[in-house]
Amino acid sequence: MRLSLLFLSCASFLLAWQSPADPRIAAARQQMAANPKAFQTYNELAAGLCRKARDTSDITLYDQANDAVDRSLALSPGNYDAMKLRVTVLLGKHEFQQALKLAQELNHKVPDDIGNWASLADANAALGNYSEAERDAQWVLDLRRGSALGFEKAAGLRELFGDNEGAIEFYGEALSRTAQSDLDQRAWLLTQKARVTLASGNPKSASDTLAEALHLFPASQLAALVSADVQSANGNPTEAASLFEKCYHAVPSSVNLYKWATALDQAGQKEKADEQFAAFEKKARAEVSQPYNANLELIAYYTDRKTNPAEALRIATLESAKRQDCHTLAALAWALYQNGKFGDAKTEMDKALAVGIREATYLCHAALISAKVNNTSQPRSCTSDRPMQASLGDSK
Fold it and tell me: What are the two backbone dihedrals, phi and then psi, of residue 144, each rounded to the nearest 5 degrees?
C-alpha cells in the first residue's frame, strides 16, 4: 500500500471509532441485562474492555473493567477468571507491584496456567526484574510449546535485550499462530512488529506492516501513534504532528499531548508547541504521584526543554523508587547528569544498559556521561524528546 493511502486510512479512526472489541463488549452488556447475576458475563465484559484499553491506553476503560471484575467477584467470590482479569487491569493501570503480588498468588494455586505466567513476565519486566521475566516467559513456552502467547512474551523481551531482529521474528511467529478471527490481537501484533521494525531503521518495511494492521483494525489508536513515528522518521514532521493531534483528541492523555507538542516543535510550529508543552506540564504534574503517569516524559521535559534539573531529579527519584526498569533508570541517569552528579549518573546508566537495550538516545546520553566522568572530549549533544517505555506491561 502506498504511504499516502496508509496514513489516510490511519486518520480514519476519528471518523468511525470502532474497536474489534466493541461487539464483544456490547454482547456482554446484553447478556448482563438478560441475566444480571451471571458472574461470567462480567468477566467477559472486563476482558473486552481490557482489550480495547490495550489499544488506546485509555485509563478509564481499565476503571470500567475493574468495576466489572468487582461485580463478578461479588457474585462469585474468588472466581479464578476474575482474579486473572484483576491482574490484567492492574498491569494496564501500571500498578505493577500489586499485579506481581496477585499473579504470584494465582501462580501458586494454578502453576500450569500459561496466561498467568505471561502476566508474571509482564509485571517483572515492567519493574526491571528481567531475569525473572525471562524465566516466566520461558515457562509459557515450556508448558505449551509453540504457543502464540509464548512467542509474544519472548518478542517483548528480545527487544529489551537489544535483539530487534529476534523480536521481529518472534512477533511474526506469534502472528502465524493467532486465529484469523482475532482481529485486534493480530493488529496489535502487527503494530508491535512495525514499531520494532521502525526502531531498527526500516521505515518502509514498518509502513508496509502497519498497512496490514490497519486493514484489520482501521481505527487502531496504537497503529496511528506508530504511523506518526514513521512520518517523523521519513522527515514529515507536519504530518506526524497532525496524526499526534488526532490521537490526543481521541485519547487526551499526558503522553499523547507530549508527543503532539514534540512533533509541533520539530515541525517548526514553535508558538503552538510551547502552548501544548505548557498544557502538558500542568497535566503531567497532576499525575506525578499516580501509578499511571507521564513521569518519563516530564523528566525529559525538565532536562531538555524547560531547564529544571532539580525537579527532573526529584521526579526521577520518586519513579525509580517504584520500578527499576531500564527506561526509568536511564531517565534517572540523565537527571543526575543534568544536576552535575556524573558518577552517580554513570552508575545508573550502566545498570540501565546492562540488560542490552540499544535505544539511540540512551547510548548518546551514556557517551556524554562517560565523557564527564573520564574527563574526555564531549560527543555530540542529544536530547530525550521521545522517552521509551516498557511495552510488556501493556501487552495483555
Answer: -145, 90
C-alpha cell at 161: 535485550
Look up residue 116 and give its three cell numbers. Answer: 498467568
Residues 6+ apart with CB under 8 A from 108: none
pLDDT digit string, tens, across residues 103-153 = 999 999 999 999 999 999 999 999 999 999 999 999 999 999 999 999 999
SS3 of residue 287 by DSSP: coil
Place of cell 526498569: 325
pLDDT tens digits along 13-60: 443 458 999 999 999 999 999 999 999 999 999 999 999 999 999 999
- DSSP letter, residue 12: G
Which of 177, 240, 301, 285 shows the shortest CA–CA distance to 3? 240
Give the residue among 14, 92, 114 at the shortest CA–CA distance from 47.
Answer: 92
Q: Which of 315, 333, 323 is nearest to 393 (CA)?
A: 323
Query: Of 396, 390, 311, 323, which is closest to residue 117 (Cα–Cα)?
Result: 396
**Residues 291, 294, 296: CA angle, nearest 5 degrees:** 105
Q: Please give the grid coordinates belonging to residue 236.
A: 514529515
What would the DSSP string read from start to end of 110-152? -TT-HHHHHHHHHHHHHHT-HHHHHHHHHHHHHHSTT-HHHHH
Selection from 67, 128, 123, 114 nearest residue 92 by Cα: 123
> Any idea which architecture 287-374 has in CATH?
Alpha Horseshoe (1.25)
Torsion of CA 181, 187, 193, 198, to 10 degrees: 160
Place of cell 481505527: 219
Compute the residue count for the chain. 396
How far apart CA 318 and CA 4 sit, in angstroms, is 43
Buried b (16+ CB within 10 A) or exposed e, 77-93: eebebbbbbbbbbbbbb
All 3 cell numbers of residue 355? 540488560
